[in-house]
């Protein structure tokens, strides 16, 4: 086991700071729509339009939404007897969290020339659940006037803009890993003592001697046995702490102090990922994903490295890393007008990268289809770029707009593996 010499504490300020939590990010999406009535049964027609999906994206993290313009009778499933009242709804379709907090959400309705007719119709809900949708809230008089306007503009073009303000903290990739930002010196010391005890006397771990003395010791089977025994022992000794907290702290420390010292290059890291996945050590596998995300945030990373990490995430099923890398690449692509050509070039580059990753993988499947893997990733990128293209973003504390999906916030140091070259 590695000793604790100069290794970063597990409490490395990876979550958002107070100032970051106070900052809001403002997004605006404008929908040009031809108001249509559609058959709903029994010879009746009602207004129903659904916008293309769009994504509020920053720092590589994306939340996907749709606007819906429809008669209230459809929103409430009242299909018998059509109502002429109409409203605008916003739906949360996809994202890294089941629930997300909103700072502010407003709808503006304009005529086809862009003249504002109904400004700042507020959606008051602050907590949104995946799949949920909420209407713009109006007074009875406003609702009547909005309905009249929309019914009068059937078969005509109008514009609907939505302004979404969200906490900056939800756009930190590290926000979606187990949080380790609370002081826990006693728990950290207990974890380290267990590792030192095992190093001094391996026999305290049941059956560890059998693995150590086998003809071909499986390193990751050994790591799994020690890690799982440590979780059991620490839960028994540290009963005043939450079990999940113990597991998260121990996983972070074990990964940092017992696995990372043996990692020098990228091929070593691939070996760690494959070994942890093969032996189903979920807690340590998540720490590997956290490590890569942190490194991408700290490095001035080139596009080639991000592409490599995206393929790594796709292959080894690392959802946060995949979202982060896809967001960075899509954000870069939409800055150019020749995106189709760039996607073609990217596809060729990523096929070469995928083969190189396979050469570094000791557990490689000779029949693996690289083309299908890359084509699936590129198709996802095309869809994401399309969703991000027409959404503008700015900070609530500044009027300056930004197109960057990378954060300039300082991120703590982690063990040295140079994935950024």
Automatic annotation (TrEMBL):
Biased composition (Low complexity): 394-409
Positions of the UniProt region annotated as Disordered: 394-421
This protein's name: BTB domain-containing protein
Annotated source species: Syphacia muris
